[in-house]
Design goal:
single chain, alpha/beta, Dihydrodipicolinate Reductase, domain 2
């Protein structure tokens, strides 16, 4: 994305992106983040990457919930989705219809996985002032036990119907931040949940989950006024004022 970002910033145009790695690049792409920040400062405009995940469900929302805590020991976020209702590119991204061998090959080359767990974990840790020992990000296939289908494809038993992915941030040798996602055709329930272990303990569950496609487009549009009003430079969701629905005038 760097060449596109550079071209846009040369025209002195602010950017709201959905590039996952750009949502919190200070942990994984420090050099690129500094370059984009310098370009944006020179152009006197702001740059932000956001979305539903990363950008909200598994980072911004848990961070906001900790504001009422006197102590936080551990954060666990679960996102489970029945992928039958999602668009075809999403179903392909989670490996639906592949053999196990095809799935593992595409996991190895990075084409099948959810991108953003590392960025979300780093954002949460920085917000809480935690120094992490390491961050892991593991991907496994979800295999169909019965024939299941969507509008776009059908999956027979033994084939991959989706993905199970878990990212963990370790602090002092213990898992302190755990992000768990299951997205597969035929999931019996779709939901998002956030658990904060501490004082007080907080457990939030969004029945039906936050719709990935609608939420992604909405948060991008709703953040435009925040980006237009922000200081020049590269920003993250941690930097900007509290986001909200913005109907326009």
């Amino acid at each position: 994305m760097l060449p596109q970002i550079e071209t846009i910033l040369k025209s002195r145009t602010p950017i709201v992106s959905t590039t996952e790695e750009l949502a919190y690049p200070g942990y994984t792409h420090i050099k690129h983040a500094r370059q984009i920040h310098a370009w944006a400062k020179k152009a006197k405009v702001a740059v932000l990457s956001t979305g539903v995940n990363p950008g909200f469900v598994m980072d911004t929302l848990p961070i906001a919930l900790t504001a009422v805590c006197a102590r936080v020991d551990r954060i666990i976020v679960n996102r489970v989705q029945d992928a039958r209702s999602r668009r075809l590119p999403f179903q392909q991204k989670i490996g639906a219809g592949m053999t196990t061998e095809q799935f593992q090959k595409q996991v190895a080359d990075g084409s099948v996985r959810h991108v953003g767990f590392t960025e979300s974990i780093a954002m949460i840790a920085d917000a809480l002032g935690w120094t992490l020992d390491r961050i892991t990000d593991n991907v496994e296939p979800k295999l169909a036990t019965v024939t299941t289908s969507s509008e776009f494809l059908a999956v027979d038993p033994g084939y991959v119907c989706g993905i199970v992915q878990e990212g963990v941030g370790y602090r002092k040798g213990e898992p302190a931040i755990r992000l768990h996602m299951e997205a597969y055709l035929g999931a019996p329930e779709t939901y998002d949940s956030i658990e904060i272990e501490g004082s007080p303990r907080i457990a939030v569950r969004v029945a039906g989950g936050i719709h990935g496609d609608i939420a992604t487009t909405s948060i991008v549009i709703n953040l435009i006024p925040r980006v237009l009003g922000a200081a020049p430079g590269l920003h993250t969701m941690r930097d900007l004022p509290l986001p909200s629905f913005f109907p326009g005038r």
